[in-house]
């Protein structure tokens, strides 16, 4: 299956570079380019994009607002958004994940990292986790309102999870893959995947990125700022 990729960035030169890179891969193609968030949302619908590479800062409708619109659209539930940021330490990263993005990547990432990010997002199997991701989530949730970013409503929703689903959620929040979790909990990867999918359904999460944020916001996992 060919992964349909949409580019959303106000810098034409950057879009051109990404297009050359992505179109050089046999399993993916660029289906559109947008210079602002509103155009990105429209093209995501029209071109049936699988993955949107979304710049956070754009004129007009920015990447954060566009991600919220895509996440809230029932017709775009299959679309995965990868946020692109100039600086990996960026206060908008957690807001992006909360808005529905599957993860983020620094614009300075190596070509192979970008291509892998597209494939991972398209698979829906794992959170894009550059080294800084987990630390950023912890850092900005900890700096929320002085309460470790805990959301009482989300804490109550955890009551719907089984004990094993909670264990798996903690491992997901730690950035571990299904195979790693399976080894840690001494179960099969398929069993882990089942628990992850059930947790996502019960918590209303689009993907693993959302599970990580929920784990921190609910207080299940405590932010640690080094």
TrEMBL record:
The modification 4-aspartylphosphate is found at residue 55. It comes from the Bacteria. The keyword Transcription applies. InterPro entries: CheY-like_superfamily, NreC/VraR/RcsB-like_REC, Sig_transdc_resp-reg_C-effctor, Sig_transdc_resp-reg_receiver, Tscrpt_reg_LuxR_C, WalR-like. Keywords: DNA-binding, Phosphoprotein, Transcription, Transcription regulation. Residues 4-122 form the Response regulatory domain. Residues 154-219 form the HTH luxR-type domain. This is Response regulator. The lineage of its organism: Bacteria, Bacillati, Actinomycetota, Actinomycetes, Kitasatosporales.
């Amino acid at each position: 299956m060919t992964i349909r990729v949409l580019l959303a960035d106000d810098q034409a030169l950057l879009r051109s570079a990404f297009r050359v890179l992505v179109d050089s891969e046999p399993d993916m193609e660029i289906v559109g380019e947008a210079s602002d968030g509103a155009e990105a949302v429209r093209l995501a619908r029209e071109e049936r994009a699988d993955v949107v590479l979304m710049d956070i800062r754009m004129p007009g409708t920015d990447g954060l607002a566009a991600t919220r619109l895509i996440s809230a659209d029932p017709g775009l539930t299959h679309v995965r958004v990868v946020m692109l940021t100039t600086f990996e330490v960026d206060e908008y990263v957690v807001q992006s994940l909360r808005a529905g993005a599957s993860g983020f990547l620094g614009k300075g990432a190596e070509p192979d990292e970008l291509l892998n990010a597209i494939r991972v997002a398209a698979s829906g199997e794992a959170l894009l986790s550059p080294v800084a991701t987990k630390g950023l989530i912890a850092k900005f949730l900890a700096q929320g309102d002085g309460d470790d970013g805990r959301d009482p409503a989300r804490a109550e929703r955890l009551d719907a999870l089984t004990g094993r689903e909670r264990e798996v959620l903690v491992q997901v929040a730690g950035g571990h893959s299904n195979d790693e979790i399976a080894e840690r909990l001494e179960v099969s990867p398929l069993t882990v995947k089942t628990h992850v999918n059930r947790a996502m359904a019960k918590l209303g999460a689009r993907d693993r990125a959302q599970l990580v944020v929920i784990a921190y916001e609910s207080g299940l996992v405590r932010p640690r700022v080094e």
